[in-house]
Amino acid sequence: MLQLHDHDGSHYLTYPPPERYSAEVGPEALEQALRERGGARPLALHVHLPFCRQACRFCASQRVPSRDSRQAEPYLSRLDREMVLVSRLLSESPPVERLHWGGGAPAFLSLDQMGDLFDRLDARFGLSGARGRDFSIEIDPREADVFTLRHLQALGFNRLSLGVQEFDLRVQRAVNRVQPRVLTESLVDEAERLGFRSLNLDLIVGLPLQTPRGFGDTLEQVIAMAPAHITLHRYAHLPQRYRPQQEIRVEELPDAATRLAILGEARGRLQAAGYVHIGLGHFARRDDSLALALSEGRLARDLQGYTSHPPGDQLGLGVAAISRVGATLTRNARQLEEYEAALDASRLPVAGGLRPGPEQRLRAAAMEALACRRELDLTALSREYGCNAGVLLADDLQRLAPFCEAGLLERQGERLRLTPDGAWGLTRLLAAFDPGADPTP
């Protein structure tokens, strides 16, 4: 069973995944989707800020290494140009209640640059000041201090995600991310003092020199900080795709048995500490909004992960950012030069996209049902999409049969339910609805 857990589900945040987008679906597709969207439909914003000062060897993000925040100025100017082009296509919308800054390391920007970017977003789209808003930002503790958090809180951010990865010094050195625990602790303490509503700490399983005991010690230290969320990511070694990973020594990577032992240790410690397994490596305290949304059947997902907010459209801004507007999926140019060239020509920087067909939308809905509600009602799905879901998904359901036999799924007629063990193997179950993927361990 533990073999089911050794898999990363981030590529199923949207289906079909971005790797299958076509260059034939370009800027015109996003323009049309933006013009046609209903004005009352919620719009979430994701801003991709690719800069960082220090290259972590495990990095799989689209990043721009730099030492000087002034080098971000041309990018911020292009980002504003993208906002202008997009905002012209939007009808009047309610204030934006969901905003996320990711990267890279958004705290690479100076405080003035952060303030200016926030003001421009407000001017172009109208940011909500409501108490229930979710304005989140990813923070590398090496790039931030208490003054950074105070500035972010003053701007309106109320959610933080801190990248811990590992506290074991041997592992930190192996991935070029030496980060004393005191850096993280000081930010956690300040975030609590400032009243940030939610704090997430990210960890990575599968890094070089990692051991079950060492990771267990890291997890105990993280649990002692009592964050609302803890996220376990799986390291995927793809040096041919991500250049920083070429510096990782393959012989230092933990083997499959060690990774599984680390995950087993993590499962036991998190359950003992009272964290609820939301799914796909996400854990939350029982009093957190995600845990409550799961128990009340209103959990949802967007391109950043799980959310307690109703699903809506999501607009990605910046290099390599992904948008989902209506049924249209698009991704911006992945290379900075291509992104800049498009905006300099006053074009949206979309490099590819997809308009999912009826069967793809049906499969995506089936995945969302399992990922968010832990059950799939084929009768309800048929009614919603005006089809016989059991017939159209017959091959997919057949691929799920071994998981039913293993006790990861329970099927009663037209209804399938995840068991607690099945929630740990959720990515493999979702892969059953992805033709061409191999869902078996």
From TrEMBL:
Cofactors required: [4Fe-4S] cluster
Pfam families tied to this protein: HemN_C, Radical_SAM
Alphabetic keyword roster: 4Fe-4S, Cytoplasm, Iron, Iron-sulfur, Metal-binding, Oxidoreductase, Porphyrin biosynthesis, S-adenosyl-L-methionine
Documented EC number(s): 1.3.98.3
Primary location recorded for the protein, binned into one broad class: cytoplasm
Pathway linked to the protein: Porphyrin-containing compound metabolism; protoporphyrin-IX biosynthesis; protoporphyrinogen-IX from coproporphyrinogen-III (AdoMet route): step 1/1
Subcellular compartments: Cytoplasm
Bound cofactor: record note: Binds 1 [4Fe-4S] cluster. The cluster is coordinated with 3 cysteines and an exchangeable S-adenosyl-L-methionine.
Catalytic reaction annotation: coproporphyrinogen III + 2 S-adenosyl-L-methionine = protoporphyrinogen IX + 2 5'-deoxyadenosine + 2 L-methionine + 2 CO2
Keyword Iron: yes
PROSITE patterns the UniProt entry points to: RADICAL_SAM (PS51918)
NCBIfam families: hemN
Summary of subunit composition and partner proteins: Monomer.
Protein name: Coproporphyrinogen-III oxidase
Name of the encoding gene: hemN
